[in-house]
Specification:
By secondary structure, the chain is an alpha+beta fold. The chain has 2 domains: 88 residues, Archaeosine Trna-guanine Transglycosylase, Chain: A, domain 4 (Roll); 98 residues, Winged helix-like DNA-binding domain superfamily/Winged helix DNA-binding domain (Arc Repressor Mutant, subunit A, Orthogonal Bundle). It has 9 helices and 6 strands; from the N terminus they run αβββααβαααααββα. The strands form 2 sheets. It has a 4-stranded antiparallel β-sheet with strand order 1-4-3-2. Helix 6 crosses helix 9. The longest helix is centred in the middle third of the chain and has 16 residues.
Length: 193
């Protein structure tokens, strides 16, 4: 489930406690946690509703200036049912602490290497993890489209797979582009030695 940055800031501060989406089937479940740029957001309830049942207060609790603004956003999607999603900030993103780790043991580094090998083994593109890490290191803050051209990969594929590297704490997303995290730098030293 995606959130606009302004709504994420509101969730983190506690000012935003609702989200509304129009879906053909629910794309979020009660009790699930979503990794976001501000940390972990917990989905505490998902219920089907109607446009008529949404109040001005609901719209403000969802981070919109008015009910009309919320309805305008929902109207952009002609098909589907409207869902009311209760959300709350759960915790900081654990990847932030993970990516700062640099004093890993040989066993921990080997475990990370095994995870990269597994990503490579299950990819239809073949081995890609080290090449993408090195491309990011050599071209910091390069936009995904430019990085895709440079590496010969499709942009959407690249973004999805860089997210896998980010989940391991190896990359940092910026606007625009990516950099290698301190953990990623340490792993590259280990891989290249």
């Amino acid at each position: 489930m995606l959130f606009k940055q302004e709504h994420l800031e509101g969730i983190r501060s506690g000012k935003v406690s609702l989200a509304f989406r129009k879906w053909n089937k629910p794309s979020a479940k009660q009790g699930s946690a979503v990794k976001t740029s501000v940390g972990i957001v917990e989905i505490t309830a998902v219920t089907k509703t109607t446009a008529a049942a949404i109040s001005e207060k609901d719209a403000r609790n969802a981070g919109f200036s008015s009910l009309a603004a919320l309805r305008s956003m929902l109207d952009k999607y002609p098909a589907g049912d409207i869902y009311r999603i209760a959300v709350q900030y759960k915790s900081p993103d654990p990847r932030l602490a993970l990516r700062e780790q640099t004093s890993l043991s040989a066993v921990q580094l080997a475990a990370l290497k095994t995870k990269l090998e597994r990503l490579d083994a299950y990819s239809k593109q073949g081995a890609w993890t080290t090449d993408i890490l090195l491309a990011i290191k050599k071209n910091p803050l390069l936009k995904a489209a430019s990085l895709a051209l440079l590496t010969g990969k499709e942009k959407d594929w690249l973004k999805i797979n860089i997210r896998k590297l980010k989940n391991l704490g190896l990359t940092i997303s910026h606007d625009p582009g990516y950099t290698i995290s301190p953990l990623g730098e340490r792993l590259l030293e280990y891989l290249i030695i």
